[in-house]
Amino acid sequence: MKFNKVCVIGLGYIGLPTAATFAMHGIEVLGVDISPNIIETLNRGEIHIHEPGLPEIFSDAIKSGKFKAALKPEQADAFIIAVPTPFKHDETGEYHGTAYKLADMNAVTSAAESIVPHLKKGNVVILESTSPPRTTLDLVAPILEKSTLKAGIDFHLCYSPERVLPGQILRELIENSRVIGGVTPESAQAGADLYATFVKGQIIQTDATTAEMVKLMENTYRDVNIAIANEFSRLADKFGVDVWEAIPIANLHPRVKILSPGPGVGGHCISVDPWFFVEAAPELTPLIYNTRQVNDSQPQFVVDVVKRALGKLKGKKIAALGLAYKPDVDDLRESPAVEVVHLLQKKDAEVLACEPFKPDANLPGITIAPTLDESIHDVDAILLLVRHSEFIKLDPNHVAKQTKARIVIDTVNGWDSTDWTKVGFHFVKLGSGKTA
Length: 436
Description:
With 436 residues, the protein is of the alpha/beta class. The protein folds into two domains: 204 residues, 3-Layer(aba) Sandwich (Rossmann fold); 198 residues, Rossmann fold (3-Layer(aba) Sandwich). It contains 16 helices and 16 strands. Strands 3-2-1-4-7-8-9-10 form an eight-stranded mixed β-sheet, with helices on both faces. Strands 13-12-11-14-15-16 form a six-stranded parallel β-sheet. A hairpin with a 2-residue loop joins β5 and β6. α8 crosses α10. The chain is globular.
């Protein structure tokens, strides 16, 4: 199929890079978002998210005249839905007395409804938003068929999940393999034709529900593996072992690959996607459910480590270094670092955060210092929550001159304890019972 115009609905961490990439490959792109501020920012030639390389490619897309942003869709050859699928924060499901989180599909519903007036025969509609199994068939298709056109007959309908890593999105959009799940084989082929515009990796065609499940399986697999690493960190703490020493030794086994523990699991994928399986089939997912319980409770374990290091939390001043869910990105969604800060505050600790990638973040109840030095100046302890490069490169000698604190707590294995203890710091590391 030939595509002259693509409409991308949702201009966040996935939608905007996708839209810019299509534009850079000569296709006219209309980017749609419900936020007037985002639309105004983009049409000025500026961007609202941090992603390496995106400012340059977006600038080129604007200059080419191939990209514009608007609040509502227009007629196009293809429509891509890339909107968020967060949790319903005021509602949970329950199975045999066990509560679980539910997906909020309102944004997907609204995006699909916005396409209906513009849908024509021969169009391609692709859902990219991570969704519970059968969303494409049971939610999106009936909405689009309100146009009187039939999915798989009059227009093509697919599911194609993003499979990219923040910080490397632009490269991985092009180089990673892509799965296209169609409601019919013909729809899958049409979707493959669209992404072949720029995808150099393998394009695998399947049915829509299989594609939905593949995305959830990938992130659930990773969630389970992180959970066992986090449990190992708790066990090492209990038994007087350094988990950071033990893991590399265990990984010498040719069939073992234990991941690294940390303060929890965040972001809009690994911490969210497994719940979609639990919601869809709670009676079949006890392992997935318990994995989520482990990783969601890891921030509390961090708070326990901090309390032990300080003796108490009430009235203690703590510098929290990092609020993003992973290193060197500005994405704070579902961040365990944010949860750690909130838990510390509930214990009456005074927390001053530092987040170099989003210093203007508006997080209720959390104060963010303008600079690193200001965050550590008048505190009792320094808590490393994210492996941002800026933090990992810190010189303990410089820090010692900038703060009265003499306790540092490392939750991500970012620092060498010897470097810090040499200049007078008491060094505590998550998962290291040897420093407890």
